[in-house]
Amino acid sequence: MENRSPELPNTPYRGRLAPSPTGYMHLGHARTFWEAQERCRARGGTLILRNENLDQARCRPEFVAAIFEDLHWFGFDWQEGPDCGGPCAPYHQSQRVTFYRDAFERLKSDGFLYPCVCSRKDIEAALAAPHASDDQEPVYPGTCRQALRPDSAARKISWRFRVPDGETISFTDGRLGGQCFVAGRDFGDFVVWRHDNVPAYQLACTVDDATMRITEVVRGADLLVSTARQILLYRALGLEPPAFVHCPLMTDDAGLRLSKRHDSLSLRQLRIRGESPQAMRSAWGGVCSG
Ligand code: GLU
Prior knowledge:
This protein is of the alpha/beta class and about 290 residues long. It has eight helices and nine strands. The chain is globular, with a radius of gyration of 19 Å.
């Protein structure tokens, strides 16, 4: 399956920044977001800020406030978002659950989903030779695929998307070129509705990018396999996928991927230390040009 680029000559470009307020934004986020903003500007497009705050256990209001402050300080400027409104409001995912619920019900009634009672521990135990896919999510062994397990009555149910085993999902990345992932090998049946009654990232992101009419998704390379999953959701929902660009992940001096634990490289700390955003952007050189 090959997705077509929707960047047709007359399609107005719409890009997005989709931070999760689970910590302060760091320099790695800023570099990826900068590429998103530059690509959008170069195409005369509209940039949307979406607050991905579905995981209420991990998201905190002070991090939402920090997203606006720190991104503006760094030089970001969006035209639609939670703070400035726009035609696709609301822009907080926590206020968009009816959209996700509708898509979920459609997927369920069209036979794409099945209930699953496996915990993370069950999955690890069921995998004789655990092999994580590229994004570290183990390939689901299919325990609940045919029927719910006998011990399921007392367990919480999540809902999984049944992937077409053996099918190659391919797409052309705007930076990395041709990408192929085999369903059932590189990634397995994935959760679209969590056992705690929260829509999962894959579903929420797909529904939002479609309803917000995003034409190009620019994000970190850790989400390459998720793009393959999301292409399956677009197809199941009868939606056209956007174009995709995945940016290299920033690492620290020890070669470790930057994470929200790298506090010294958070935009907040850099700002407190008086660093100049302009100088940091120049240090990236051409890496992030559109
Ligand atoms: N909110 C997601 C994250 O912070 C990004 C999702 C995306 O860009 O698709 O990892």
